[in-house]
Amino acid sequence: MMDPIYRGTIVSGLVTSLLLHYRPMRGDYAALLYGALIIIFFLRNVATNPRPLVTTAFVFGLHSFSSLSFTALYRISPWHPLARYPGPWLWKISSLRLVYVSFMGRRHLILDDLHRKYGPVLRIGPSQLSFNKLSAYSVIYGAGTHMEKADSYNTPGHLNIQALFFKQKTRDIHSERKRIWSKAFTSAAYVPILYFPSMLKHHKSRISNLIPSIESRTLEMLHCIDRRQSESSSDLFDLSRVLCHWAFDVMGEMVFGGSNNFDLMQSDDPDHLVEGGKMATIVLDSFGQSPWLMDISWYLPAGQSLDRLRNLAAAMMRNRVKADAETTRRDLTSYLLEGETSSGERIPLKDLELDAVVAMQGGSDNTSTTMCLAFYYMLASNLEYGYYDQLQKEVDGAFPDPSGPLDWEILANLPFLNATINEALRLASPYYLPRIIPKGGVVIDGDYIPEGVNVAIAAYSQQTSEDNFYPQPLDFRVERWLPGGLGPQSKTEKSALFSFSTGPHACIARSLAYQEMRYAMARIALAYDMMLGPNFDVKQYRNGILNMRTTILEHPLMVTARKRKGARLPKPL
């Protein structure tokens, strides 16, 4: 007959399973409580039990096994609310499998394979569904249902901070913050001219915006390309590294103005700020799929990359706030400090400090990655399709003086340039953006989904589906975005490009991101003839593209650049 203490342990495991199902506990609190109970149990057995350590280990091991077993059985049982949805049984039992494939950067590919096997609606966690249906997109992300971000967007460390880019406590807080941020980006984005010094005297009223930062830093980038190639013994340089440093410098200047300068293009990032920002994003995106694990990892070395970046941005934001009275040039912070004039709403400094991290990381990372992959795909297929040659031909025709000013309206209407950006976005942004079903549940494409379930669109599957992009959905074909497409049977479903999302949580910097990419890509094409290095492995590079909420490029984009005939590099402003 089983010892009563062991029977009690099994029963307590069942009770624990039920309690945590109905009353979830933070992961760090649960770990602390469990550790305390182990210590107390051990100390109580030291005096009376000849083998207190063995007994303690067995009892708590049995308790853990019991609790986990009851939880697993329920999650794969026919009584679970999501029992009717297919998926691998290990994924149904625990979200740790989703954490793992997210961390490895292959989530989009694995979900695509699973959808092919199980169908358009897939269960990928205890309370998580993935939809490979275009019709589900507007329901999940649209304003009509206004689903909130899932718990993977919780503020790391449960800081008492309400930051726009994380999950807010209430919908009203999100709406107020978004109004303030939208004002900043709207004021910054819709400016018709990218100015040169000779033009400033004619447009003094328009200087107070973010456009000069793009122009000045992009001109500096051209010199950076020149310098890094000349310093290389092989006559090659890593274009992806240049673009990452350029984007970080641009966002640093946009957010903080002249009060803080990163100057990564000059320093080559000795403190590994770009890599640190990417690692912080990886931790949030992967561990966040299992929030209890994120609670614990915050205290471990894995969580320190985010804390380090946050502390750096916080210090810079404090410097910027102190210098506000002396600032004459508009930056993002100047708009944010003003707040919402109609309501009087202002963003507290502690919230600004965290938002600054995300603005810098998110604003620089996705822009630079998209451009890296645009150049990779263009150069890799230039012999077959001549894409880089076509881009140069288009910008040459639009701007006869390669060193002269670039008009924003002309850039916005260059068909091939914009088609190249859209095609790069299609293949470069397979992001996983989970939302949580609100109270009362929601019907998605005829299926009732109960409240509390996390749902997301399989972006990669939709963006590479023959139903939306035909033919050659897996290939980089700029023509699909141009009139005539890839032939009379071709299809380009523009609504299936999810790079910036839509609805209440859509990216508010979409227009600014396009503007940055248009300007920088045009400048590079005007100034340089480029080609991949002689030993560049095109297939290896593509296989080394890892996607989380950021993109990791495992291999450098080694290219050679030759200054074009008649091109000169203007000095940065």
SSE topology sketch:
Elements: H1 4-22, H2 27-46, H3 52-75, H4 89-93, H5 96-103, H6 107-118, E1 121-125, E2 128-131, H7 137-141, E3 148-149, H8 171-189, E4 193-194, H9 197-200, H10 211-231, E5 237-238, H11 239-256, H12 264-267, H13 273-287, H14 291-297, H15 301-322, H16 332-338, H17 349-380, H18 382-385, H19 387-398, E6 406-407, H20 408-412, H21 415-428, E7 435-436, E8 442-444, E9 447-449, E10 454-457, H22 459-463, E11 469-470, E12 491-492, H23 510-527, E13 528-532, H24 538-543, E14 545-547, E15 551-553, E16 558-563
Parallel strand pairs: 2-10
Antiparallel strand pairs: 1-2, 3-7, 4-6, 5-16, 7-10, 8-9, 11-12, 13-16, 14-15
Helix pairs in contact: 1-3, 2-3, 5-13, 8-16, 10-11, 10-23, 11-17, 13-15, 15-17, 17-21, 17-23, 19-21
Features of the shown structure:
globular, 573 residues, iron, alpha+beta, 5-stranded mixed β-sheet, 24 helices, Cytochrome p450, Cytochrome_P450_monoxygenase
General description of the model:
- The chain crosses the membrane at residues 6-22, 29-47.
- Among the domains are: 4-75, no CATH class; 171-433 and 498-563, Cytochrome P450 (Cytochrome p450).
- Strand 8 and strand 9 (447-449) form a beta hairpin.
- With 573 residues, it is α+β, with helices and mostly antiparallel strands.
- The longest helix is centred in the middle third of the chain and has 32 residues, at 349-380.
- The protein contains 24 helices and 16 strands.
- It has helices at 4-22, 27-46, 52-75, 89-93, 96-103, 107-118, 137-141, 171-189, 197-200, 211-231, 239-256, 264-267, 273-287, 291-297, 301-322, 332-338, 349-380, 382-385, 387-398, 408-412, 415-428, 459-463, 510-527, 538-543, and strands spanning 121-125, 128-131, 148-149, 193-194, 237-238, 406-407, 435-436, 442-444, 447-449, 454-457, 469-470, 491-492, 528-532, 545-547, 551-553, 558-563.
- Helices cover 53% and strands 9% of the residues.
